[in-house]
Queue: 2 jobs
Job 1
Amino acid sequence: MKSYDVIIIGGGPGGYNAAIRAGQLGLSVACVEGRATLGGTCLNVGCMPSKALLHASELYEAAASGELGHLGIEVKPSLNLAQMMKQKDESVTGLTKGIEFLFRKNKVDWIKGWGKLDGVGKVKVSDDQGNVTEYQAKDIVIATGSEPTPLPGVTIDNQRIIDSTGALALPQVPKHLVVIGAGVIGLELGSVWRRLGAEVTVIEYLDRICPGIDEETAKTLQRSLAKQGMTFKLGSKVTQATPSADGVSLTLEPAAGGEAQTLQADYVLVAIGRRPYTQGLGLESVGLQTDKRGMLENQGHRTSVPGIWVIGDVTSGPMLAHKAEDEGIACIELIHGKPHEVNYGLIPGVIYTKPELATVGKTEEQLKAEGRAYKVGKFPFLANSRAKINHETEGFAKVIADANTDEVLGVHLVGPSVSEMIGEYCVAMEFSASAEDIALICHPHPTRSEALRQAAMNVDGKAMQI
Ligand code: FAD
Ligand code: NAI
């Protein structure tokens, strides 16, 4: 029986980064992945293909809406959806092959097939030919990720009622796309299809979009998306969806109860969250159980069984690729005997719509609930010269600092390219920077990043350009 120091089950951002770090540290390591390509949800059907379509559809809309015309660039675009999908698929293939290269470089064995725990220290792998091979490892890391949460009464058939994977590969632009769930997937993929010409209605159970995100920031994004033509039905629940050959008939009701109404769509995207994936993993063979949400609990990445670790979407915390990556690194460093910790208070989140939304640290609502005194500095992109010259003036930078110490506690951005700018505050906050520290640091002009500095200045009411 082949034996390794570490076997990782799952080749997504959690698993592949763990495997690479194990290889770097000189551990003998294998990664078991059942999918035909490495990279997990993120590279195959998540982060990367969605960003490819967001990028392409943003450019298409800029041309189609007259935005380019306003800059003096006259074009009449026509949509070649097949080519848009092809370039997305080619990029995804390039990225997944890239992980294979990194595995070879770091001496990681890719064991192709579905892994199943077979007692402590043992993993059985079934390949697509039906062969079963058993392997041994001192440590096993579970990194099996997540899958879309189903919605009772709305059965995903990936024909007319689709999940995010279906929404990344529609064969045509829907006339009317109904999205259930105003979370990250709903807003990003809803944006893609709206930009390409679909009427998009987003149905959300709560009375706000993006629960958990700073409320003022989420509302600002909602206003922008509504202005672009996305329709929001908040405080509503879908009770039934009946598909036919060319569409879906939906029944919805106010979440608090009340009169039902019907809605016709040609496609329905169910995006109400994701749930941990542990199917067929043989947890019972080691005496592990999931909690009522299907999640495997951890304490410092350890399960309750010595030698079995867990990282990424399948365990607690935000379901984000960079969180899975950080846990992968920390877990392997711990296995190797070095102390390592993930700072869960500083995991940034981004919604890649236009404008983008980026956030790190505490929201105003959290600080209020904690009873912590805070100050807020805001600066609108309308007053930022680079944003103004580029006609991208929606949104703001908002910095929340401790009222007594001035330490930055949270940063919430809606605006152009904020996904690329939030990292500045991740670094600053990791070093416990004060708002004044940021206000004193020279930022290049003209850049949108100046709005981040001005917001920090405004924590003490000293923004200069407003
Ligand atoms: P996964 O990436 O899900 O990988 C788990 C892997 O394990 C899978 O490949 C699966 O095939 C494999 N596996 C499962 N069971 C077994 C088994 N028994 N044997 C062998 N292999 C197994 N996050 C971001 O941070 N930024 C984004 O922009 C972003 N966009 C997203 C867009 C969409 C549409 C979706 C759906 C998700 C997005 N996410 C994004 C979330 C991100 O994809 C996940 O948080 C991330 O992939 C989690 O990594 P993971 O390694 O825990 O699991
Ligand atoms: P989500 O948790 O972001 O949003 C789900 C939304 O659906 C919530 O607003 C929730 O209130 C609502 N909802 C729940 N049940 C409902 C119901 N019955 N009817 C109507 N609305 C309902 O989940 P989403 O968008 O599915 O994304 C899944 C995960 O993938 C997220 O955890 C996210 O972190 C990750 N992701 C990250 C991205 C990024 O970082 N840019 C992009 C896409 C996904």
Job 2
Amino acid sequence: MRVSQLFNPTLREVPAEAEVISHQLMVRAGLIRKTASGLYTYLPLGLRILKKMEAIVRAEMEAKGGQEILMPILQPAELWKESGRWEAYGAELMRIKDRHNREFCLGPTHEEIITDLIRGEIRSYKQLPLLLYQIQNKYRDERRPRFGLMRGREFVMKDLYSFDRDETGMDESYQKMYDAYCRIFTRCGLVYRAVEADAGAIGGTGATHEFMVLANSGENAVVYCPECSYAANVEKAECHPQIIEDVSPEGPRKLVPTPNVKTIDDLVEFLAVPKTALVKSLLYQGDEKLLLVLVRGDREVNEIKLNNALGGFLSLQLASPEVILTLLGCQPGSVGPLEVPNELMVIADAEVPLMKSAVCGANKADYHFVDAVPSTEFRINKVFDLRMMETGEACPKCGAPLKDARGIEVGQVFKLGTKYSKALGATYLDINGEEKFCEMGCYGVGVSRSIAAAIEQNHDDYGIIWPMPLAPYQCIIVPVSTKDALVVETAVNLYLELQRLGVEVILDDRDERGGVKFKDADLVGYPIRVTLGSKTLANGQVELRERKTGETQLILIKEVAQQVKAIIEKALLF
Ligand code: ATP
Ligand code: MG
């Protein structure tokens, strides 16, 4: 390819709405353009990168025995109703109607479609295990599409589904995919961690891991143990109750005036007590139900754990001040667990009943209770681990203090068990002729998001630094003196020679100043640059520069092609 013919509109300025560096650089380097919120057009270089990522994913899926298929994006509502997810998936599902008023959705994932396929085709244990995958656009009406390709409403995903005879088989398929994912992200040169995670809307009963590319811009908080292999999304990280050596109550519980106290901080200051002496009481609304949630004053409620503890799929949110006023007769800041209506369910984090004495709201403006005893005086219906993990807490596996990091979720693997095979009736006859449900797993890679994640980890002030396996072209040739016939001719010859050697090479044949060409090459992030100028060429030499290190060396023109090839081969070794 010649840059003069390439459709690659680069920009010097940072696009106003691009918050994260990968989004800024993808637009500036002319890789993508926005069509509408969460929808992007891939320009030629962007598409080359996407195809490379796809090829890596495809190769690793094939290596584990995955077979590629392609399912429809448009999916009939009936299948989603059969699995129960038409309701449960909520507002993220893009729903549409055809001319006959029949309902469809644009697939956010394909468990229903593939299970429907399998129930029609699989009869015998001899046909299992089966690993089927596709690479395709997915659609999710995200609450906040943002960060360019990172959170789109349309995005490219690889989704593989495994069907096994029994749990042992499912565990093996899971391990295969886990290993394949490690290979994919290592091969792309990414620094990542596999973390224990929550199953979210996909559901299922068994294990699930998320693959997190570590980057400060990541939307996920993860904790990991520097001593052992434990790592988890904070949404999931299991917390052990920490007992505070607090003082016993000074006497029976008392109602004390707390004028103008609205927040936890106000209360701490007014009563001169630590946050750990308080109980935070929050009224939540889930579907039609109301529930009171209690955590210690220094803790935050983990809504994912809360939702799971309640069986999942409640659209949980904090109750509005109007609802609180009607039920408890007070403002949100005065809510407390004592003397609440009998029908109100009270759920406490595991630390609350361990507190010897507590300060809590009194459901009455300008008053709080002090010296309340949670274990005997609170009417608690259920106790769960409901709080957010904090940095420095003990590792649940080995006890060492945990560290935290931010991560971009680039993939997730799930053990589904029989959730979908039961809902849709995907059975087979086992060796004894008995009918059994298939044991399933599903495994997603965010192909387009992975590209953005790669940029988050590989860039500098001048632009992108592509890891070799993802680079749109591996090498760019830059003739700086385009008026010098020898320079131009040598550059073209080198270009042809590299092509013959199988190098993905691009020639910047534009009639531009060297500085302009260098800036664009650095912005786009080609891993190798070969520069030809009149002076060095007079000595038979060209300059070879690696984008990653910025190091340059002068090399004899007759040796440069082999050298470029060697650098590429080394970088692609895996
Ligand atoms: P998130 O928590 O980031 O919304 P998810 O857990 O809902 O993602 P999965 O259902 O696990 O996503 O989908 C598999 C993979 O698809 C994710 O690991 C992620 O890399 C990618 N992905 C999910 N949503 C998006 C999106 N809106 N834009 C780009 N990639 C996405
Ligand atoms: Mg996920």
